[in-house]
Amino acid sequence: QVQLVESGGGWVQAGGSLRLSCAASGRTFNMVQMGWFRQAPGKEREFVAFISWSDDNTYYTDSLKGRFTISRDIAKNTVYLQMNSLKPEDTAVYYCYAHRGGNRYWGQGTQVTVSS
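Now predict its structure.
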């Protein structure tokens, strides 16, 4: 099992920045990938970005390229999501996930609210 704990969410004005963190614990060896989804009110959960644990490759949903940056710290088993130039439409609950051993694990989510 892998446990994930997100932090760093909050309230910010449009144009501002936030940095989300997601710390993994438990059986974290042989981690394959970690990443982020988000779910806005009344909408389906959507993919944001992922990072490969072995080679640092990253992938983003097209609409967020250039504003969001995903990174990782292997020693801390932590993935980060730097979010810049935030817009009201970025308001959502952001969920961290981890792929390991053929399973996907989810965090509890952290709320991000961007006011206009």
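Residues 53 and 101 are 13 Å apart (CA to CA).
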